[in-house]
Amino acid sequence: MLFPSTNMNVSVGSRLGPYEIVSRIGAGGMGEVWRATDTRLDRSVAIKVLPAEFAQNAQMKARFEREAKTISQLNHPNICSLYDIGHDSGTDFLVMELLEGETLAERLDKGALPLTEVLRYGAQIADALARAHRQGVMHRDLKPGNVMLSRSAAKLLDFGLAKTLVPVQPVSAPDDATQQKPLTQEGTILGTFQYMAPEQLAGEEADARTDIFALGAVLYEMATGKRAFEGKTRTSLIAAIIASDPRPISEIQPLTPPAFEHVVQKCLSKDREDRWQSAHDVAEELTWISGAGSKAGAAAPIVARQRTRQRLQLASAALLLAAITGVAGFAIANAHRAKAETLRALVASPELDAAVEELETGFALSPDGKMLAYVGIRNGVALLFIRSLDRFDSRALAGTEGASFPFWSPDNSQVGFFAELKLKRIVVAGGEPQTVSDAEEIPRGGTWNRDGVILFAPGPRSGLLRVSAGGGPAVPATILESRNEASHRWPAFLPDGRHFLYYVMGDKKGIYLGSLDSHQRTRIVDGGSNPLFVSPGVLLFVRDRDLVAQRFDTSHFRLIGEPVSVAEDIGQFGEDGPTGYGRFSASDTGVVAFQKISLMTSQLVWRDRSGAELGRLGPPGSYMVPILSRDATRVVINRTDPKTRKTDLWSEDLTRGVYSRLTTGPGQNTIGLWSPDGKQIVFSSNRNGVFDFYIKTANGGGDERPLFASPLSKFADDWSADGRFIVYEQFTPKTYNDLWMLDLSSHKATPVLTTEFDELHAQFSPDGKWLAYTCSESGKGEVYVQSFPPSGDKWQVSTTGGDQAVWSRDQKKIYYVAPDHNLFEVEIATAPTFRIGKAAA
């Protein structure tokens, strides 16, 4: 119930003591709330004023004073803080923390919350209740309107109906009983009906478990967007609470983890003896479900290794990086509705191998939203798997070895995919794969319309092609329009089957509209990645690592309104040269599948040449790119703060086991490289936009000074032994990763290798006359050597794939990592001519 302002002493511009009133926030049964400024501390606060009509009411004033005393006892991050209490010109008021955000009730007006937020906020609310209960305080009016949601946390508000819990005392303690005499008579009903426990409605004495019932009702509403108990009249509502059970959450949200439903059902037990007996237990359960995956009764996460700039410096005893993998989730999101119903749960895929190196293999929901096609690893081989969303098991499709980027036929009966340099299709019910068209080594997605036309990106540097699903010649559907336009990829047909959306990679990257009837195109979104259209009029795409939804008019092919966030940290692969692939899929029914980015936890490990572990360095953490100093006494490594996601360089003294931070400047500071004498570190930082080179002393002292800047991002690979040259990688849309050389004597950069293939991970030989590097010209990464400065001659060192080459100190061997993750060595002779021996594991 809301009250109009009736306190004539409070208005905008007036003062209550040192507090100047700024604006009215709202009003409730226990007072008006105003925004004010504390003129002494120059901070914004919330002022809660006892309405004038209550000032003479002894019971209301007692409640008001009790709220002040109650809040003052409750110092907790999820409870609104009390700063002050006062009386001015006949007005009683409380001064509280001003919270920015929206109430849970306001948030629920938009629909159910994602499960991740239900679990996080629910645990915070439960923990706040647990603190109150430990202090002997019961809330008695827990409801969505009394919970404020900020960007990072939930805050419990309004203890106006709070009551001190009566401790269990011997009957012969009349004095104590007198002290605990309640302000309201026995049998009085206090609170908001939809969230009241049966004992409250029966007029019985309430206790902490009464709050737990209300918590269950709030959790139910958060997860479903619907109230646990409904009634057309107050009488029917009371009857529902006392005698009926709410509709199972899993009927409304089918992918709800059973463990969560169990928590809510137990909270809502009619008999308080059958409920959770403490709010602390509820908080613990919700926290456990949030991190337990399949142990919580939900399906297990999809396991896949994040694709990163994995760079490893190997010496006679190798320093290795072992990563724990990312997580996947599902959501149902009807973004076109005013009140979107959202559902999320983890999906099991036991066939996925944790050692999968590439996450860029894709997954796709069927148009009817009932099946998921994804690429998993079985016995080291990539296969296409199909899973019905109403089951926990998956089945592999025979003959799909090497599959990537599946996409469905519009009738849900077949899946298109890429394998063995071909575009293929396979009937889901069973059968042999059929070849549709040629493709390239790294395809970039496909889409299938109702006329049997498949639109696909055959490789990473081409326009889109169209072909009949039955086979035949593939013809261009789009044309690269400029020299700096690298490729067209991730196509998606619109409902008419003639128009389509796709991602353009290059200087004018973004989402474009194309047509099968012409090569004309229209730019739809600046900078967004792979688009997917969901009927009846929602465009999904990735922007700034988040999955967003925006209304899209298919009659005029234009966006309407503003984009709305669906999921955070979906991301795009690649660092300075993203592929534009956002890890999500959508069905025609509005089901959205996505994989969230999570920081990898790594452990630095010393191993000998046989692979046996020799020791560990430091605790597990979010580490990447360890690089040893030349004397092997120190290591510099990327370390990412899990809270801020900011990456900085740290070093460890391997002889003493001491960690120290090297970089503190703004932006992401990454890829540290030791100078030959070990006294300086050069690194890349994007503090000014692109990744440029900076330098500082290796002991951590001194400033981080700019070393070299250019329009494109760059990352150092190696520093020549004479200290003159730094060889580095630079990405361009047309030629991808190239090798460049920075001459420190002149501070001039010149190209070393700039071909249509990827060149990366370059290493100088100890005498500085040779350069080992990885190149993809054979269709996969192989290790090559050429003279330095380049003379045109080169030698292939690896024969079955290789990367991250390192020279031995005597320059007689090259070590590299094979595709099966084994460490190989090759005998090398550089004089009188360059000769290569046989590789050995």
Descriptive account of the structure:
This protein is mainly beta and 841 residues long. The strands form 15 sheets. The protein has a six-stranded antiparallel beta sheet, with helices on one face. A hairpin with a 5-residue loop joins strand 55 and strand 56. Helix 6 crosses helix 9 and helix 9 packs antiparallel against helix 10.
Please give the share of residues in helix: 10-25%
Average pLDDT for all residues: 78
Q: In terms of quaternary structure, what is this?
A: single chain
- Which band does the percent of strand residues land in? 35-45%
Number-wise, the strands total 58
Kindly list the characteristics that best describe this protein.
841 residues, mainly beta, four-stranded antiparallel beta sheet, 39% strand, disordered N terminus
Short description:
This protein is mainly beta and 841 residues long. 13% of the residues lie in helices and 39% in strands.
What's the arrangement of secondary structure elements?
Layout: E1 15-16, E2 19-28, E3 31-38, E4 43-49, H1 58-73, E5 82-88, E6 91-97, E7 102-103, H2 104-108, H3 115-134, E8 137-138, E9 147-149, E10 154-156, E11 163-164, H4 174-179, H5 198-201, H6 208-224, H7 234-243, H8 249-252, H9 258-267, H10 279-292, E12 318-323, E13 327-333, E14 342-345, E15 363-365, E16 371-378, E17 381-388, E18 395-396, E19 404-408, E20 414-419, E21 422-427, E22 434-438, E23 446-448, E24 453-456, E25 465-468, E26 475-476, E27 485-493, E28 499-506, E29 510-515, E30 518-526, E31 532-534, E32 538-543, E33 546-553, E34 558-567, E35 584-586, E36 591-596, E37 602-607, E38 613-621, E39 623-628, E40 634-640, E41 647-653, E42 658-661, E43 669-674, E44 680-688, E45 690-697, E46 705-708, E47 714-719, E48 725-732, E49 736-743, E50 748-753, E51 759-764, E52 770-775, E53 782-787, E54 794-796, E55 803-807, E56 813-817, E57 823-829, E58 835-840
Antiparallel strand pairs: 1-2, 2-3, 3-4, 4-6, 5-6, 7-9, 8-11, 9-10, 12-37, 13-14, 13-36, 15-16, 16-17, 17-18, 19-20, 20-21, 21-22, 23-24, 24-25, 25-26, 27-28, 28-29, 29-30, 31-32, 32-33, 33-34, 35-36, 37-38, 39-40, 40-41, 41-42, 43-44, 44-45, 45-46, 47-48, 48-49, 49-50, 51-52, 52-53, 53-54, ...
Helix pairs in contact: 3-6, 3-10, 6-9, 9-10
